[in-house]
Specification:
The complex is a heterodimer. By secondary structure, chain A is an alpha+beta fold. Chain A is built from 3 helices and 5 strands, in the order H-H-E-E-E-H-E-E. The relative contact order of chain B is 0.09. The two termini of chain B are 100 Å apart. Chain B is α/β, with parallel strands linked by helices. In chain B, a hairpin with a 2-residue loop joins strand 10 and strand 11. Chain B has 4 domains: 162 residues, Nucleotidyltransferase, domain 5 (2-Layer Sandwich); 97 residues, Nucleotidyltransferase, domain 5, CATH 3.30.420.40; 61 residues; 88 residues, General secretion pathway protein M, EpsM (Gyrase A, domain 2, 2-Layer Sandwich). Classes of the chains: A alpha+beta, B alpha/beta. The interface between A and B is large, with 66 and 58 residues. Strand 4 of chain A pairs antiparallel with strand 15 of chain B.
């Protein structure tokens, strides 16, 4: 093989190597760009969601549509007692006699990590009620406080507390200093 | 300075020229034995009045041929092939040659032929010539034959015409005779010059020159060398006069001063060198390049082309990758900005936890009154619900009701169960309604319906 052909072959191989590495690197960069665009899309969506949320929360704050918190003590045991008493008096005001089980306070997983919220699981067993209206009123009244109903059963046994109308719910607490 | 070198026998006749205004000025004229050339390039070249930046060379006459061929009028490529065949036939394969088209000539009958002139140099001779410049910093950029160089000079002196002209350079160690007719180089001959004085007396060289002219007349019977031009320090007046009388030819004076300026008018003038200086390298018909040089140039060209291609490909990839990198950087920066904004928003949200909880509860809790009212509406008369349950299972409210249908008979009770199921299905509040259990208890039917809430 002549010298010029050798040179052509060597440079041909060099060009092929450059092209191979170049295409590989380009592919990797394109992959990174696509990935980054995907992240960017998600972040943009999240930002839009947060903007909407912020606007909505601001409106809520300005309009005063904010739930009322139940007074709390420093001691957890005292808090449990306070909570039980509060629910019982709350229900008796509605003409309902009930058994209330208050569990220990724990970190809630119902909210994003952005805010720290604790929850107190509650079980209420109402022995008897006069009408549907009483039940509806009770459920409506819950909406004035940071209660979230998880299970409602009439005549069922899905909530482990004695009673004809049983409700399982959570009370959300914003921990001190969060 | 341009150094023109004309190899005559065992010597190189050299002339150094510089371009002065529009004329070429001869600033050095010397003769160096071929064997002394390495020493010349090593030591003596420094003694020249100016530095050498260009070298032109004409090879020894004995290593060259000049021949006119008449070939059929063909296309350019075929014409070249025909000339090549003729050259191979006449001189063999040891010559590197070039041809020049001298135009059409009438052929036999109505046919037209083409006159082609070929000039060649022995390949080995050319390589040898190239090898002589191994010690020279400047390499020759033009190799040609002595007749081609002289033709350039005589053309500039405007002495070439249709009348044949015999140019005779008598210079030790050789006398060179070239007969020109117009553009054609018709005959070349090299004769040894022994002693100028002796030769003038006994006319030994004169006889050889005369015989050469007679040979030309024999080769071209319809014409004869009508004009003679003498050059060289050994062309003595007695010899010139003798040849004039013998041939009856006209003596054309050799006067290079019309074209060149001479620093020292009496210094030896080398016509071959002057001719070389006048040639235009890019328009020269009989310029030769040694194969080794051609090979080097080819390799250099291939190297330049290949490296340019590789550099081009590399550059293209670098440009594309830089563009992509910049895009990625921009995206990173933009994403960074959005992330910062998100962090700010999240910090702001931390300041409104109660509002957040309120909103979350409001969004997740079903409208209890509407549900219970709807439940009362979908249960037809004769059907009593035993249980009603609604659970939040991973953000989906799933419910079930159990009850008893009490018709007048079994069929009626079953129809009431179906009616209950239909009512659930038609209700806009419930979806995914399914009757999962149905059991006859005498005339009554116990049932279970599961559903989901649409909130």
């Amino acid at each position: 093989m002549g010298k010029d052909k050798t040179i052509i072959v060597i440079f041909g191989l060099l060009i092929v190597a450059i092209a191979f590495l170049g295409v590989k690197k380009m592919g990797s960069l394109r992959g990174q760009i696509a990935e980054q665009r995907e992240f960017l899309g998600k972040s943009t969506q999240r930002l839009e969601y947060l903007n909407d949320l912020e606007r909505s929360l601001e409106e809520r704050r300005e309009s005063g549509r904010v739930l009322v918190e139940i007074p709390r003590a420093q001691d957890p045991m005292a808090n449990k007692v306070l909570m039980e008493k509060f629910i019982k008096s709350f229900l008796s005001r509605l003409g309902l006699e009930a058994e209330v089980k208050v569990e220990n306070e724990r970190r809630s997983r119902d909210f994003p990590d952005v805010i720290t919220v604790n929850e107190v699981p509650l079980k209420i067993g109402v022995k008897g009620y006069a009408s549907y209206d009483q039940v509806i009123k009770m459920l409506k009244e819950f909406k004035n406080f940071p209660f979230v109903v998880e299970v409602v059963t009439i005549g069922g046994t899905d909530v482990a507390v004695p009673g004809n109308l049983r409700v399982q719910l959570k009370y959300y607490i914003i921990p001190e200093g969060s | 300075m341009m150094l023109c070198m004309d190899q005559a026998g065992d010597r190189f006749l050299m002339t150094g020229l510089v371009k002065d205004k529009k004329k070429l000025r001869v600033c050095a004229s010397l003769a160096v034995p071929v064997s002394d050339l390495p020493r010349f390039f090593k030591e003596e070249i420094k003694n020249l009045p100016q530095g050498v930046d260009e070298i032109r060379v004409s090879g020894p006459l004995e290593n060259t041929f000049h021949k006119i061929f008449v070939v059929p009028d063909l296309k350019k490529k075929m014409l070249s092939a025909a000339v090549e065949t003729e050259v191979l036939k006449a001189f063999g394969a040891e010559y590197q040659f070039k041809d020049k088209d001298l135009g059409q000539v009438p052929g036999p009958g109505t046919k037209v032929n083409r006159k082609m002139m070929a000039a060649g140099m022995k390949r080995a001779g050319l390589e040898e010539l190239y090898g002589m410049f191994a010690n020279s910093r400047t390499k020759p950029n033009l190799y040609t034959t002595y007749p081609a160089a002289v033709h350039g000079l005589l053309d500039r002196l405007e002495v070439l015409s249709d009348k044949p002209l015999a140019f005779i350079q008598v210079e030790k160690p050789v006398c060179r005779i070239v007969v020109f007719k117009g553009e054609e180089i018709r005959l070349t001959r090299e004769l040894p010059v022994t002693d100028a004085a002796e030769d003038a007396e006994n006319s030994g060289l004169s006889k050889d020159i005369y015989r050469t002219l007679l040979f030309y007349n024999d080769s071209y019977p319809e014409e004869r060398a009508e004009r003679l031009m003498f050059a060289g320090s050994c062309a003595l007046p007695a010899m010139v006069e003798g040849l004039k009388q013998k041939t009856g030819a006209e003596i054309v004076p050799f006067d290079p001063a019309a074209v060149f300026e001479m620093d020292q008018p009496d210094s030896g003038v080398h016509p071959g060198c002057l001719g070389l200086a006048l040639l235009e390298a890019d328009r020269l018909d009989f310029g030769f390049v040694p194969f080794s040089v051609q090979e080097k140039r080819k390799i250099k060209k291939t190297l330049v082309l290949c490296s340019s291609a590789a550099a081009g490909v590399l550059l293209v990839f670098i440009l594309i990758m830089s563009r992509l990198s910049f895009d990625l950087k921009d995206l990173d920066a933009f994403h960074g900005g959005i992330k910062g904004e998100i962090r700010m928003k999240e910090d702001r949200l931390k300041e409104m936890p109660l509002e957040f909880i309120s909103q979350s509860i409001e969004a997740s809790q079903p409208p209890w009154s509407e549900i219970l009212m709807e439940l009362a509406a979908v249960v037809p008369p004769g059907v009593a619900l035993s249980t009603f349950t609604l659970k939040d299972v991973k953000k989906v409210w799933r419910g079930e009701v159990t009850g008893v249908a009490n018709g007048t008979d079994e069929i009626n009770s079953l129809l009431k169960v179906e009616e209950t199921e239909d009512n659930f299905t038609r209700s806009p509040m419930f979806n995914s309604v399914k009757l999962t259990e149905r059991e006859l208890q005498g005339e009554r039917v116990e049932f279970k319906i599961i559903y989901q809430l649409d909130i």
